[in-house]
């Protein structure tokens, strides 16, 4: 057994320095690069390491912190179009000519903006626990708001925010995921103030206004898109996709039962298998 293998729990935190900010990132695995684009309050530490390691069996997996979030410096922009520049700047820094974009939750909105802004860079787009840019059909559930805005989230909050509390199997998966993430997490790096929360909220509001018409661009994009949702996502209900499903020529939608806002942390081997097959069979 090679105990020196680089994986999600021991990979080095590296820094891409720009004139106005420094973006923190980590990279594991080899192959076509996947750039992971994070959720509200997410940092380098809050991805499930098992999910990252299974992805890294076939791909280079790159995680990063937005400008002004976690280990990065600067300020989080209030427009997802501008936030998406972090993706492009990091790819340029790493000399990546083409990549797969994968976004979770708020990061799914950023990912859609990045997909439309940088079509020459993206080969595939994967959207996890998120919705289309534009006006919501189904709003945030109150339970999400009650727990998401606490300065520090405990395990019970995580179950409600990211899993399905009514499912015993989902709660078990939540505990396993929590314990894996706990192997490497600096809680002090997680955004915890309303001042920073408001920057995320402003980005979400701008995405809902959709002044760039990104929602309609989903109908004409040539980029293959995979959408994976849980059937009880209190943040981005899958119903937000339904008005568009017959209008998106390159999109596939997978709905997982008894699953919440983090399908990739609850159903890890299954989701990675879906992703690998999607990448293999779509061009």
TrEMBL record:
InterPro entries: AB_hydrolase_1 (IPR000073), AB_hydrolase_fold (IPR029058), AB_hydrolase_sf (IPR050266). Residues 32-266 form the AB hydrolase-1 domain. The keyword Hydrolase applies. Keywords: Hydrolase. One of its GO terms (molecular function) is hydrolase activity. It comes from the Bacteria. Pfam families: Abhydrolase_1. This is Alpha/beta fold hydrolase. It comes from Flavobacterium quisquiliarum. The lineage of its organism: Bacteria, Pseudomonadati, Bacteroidota, Flavobacteriia, Flavobacteriales.
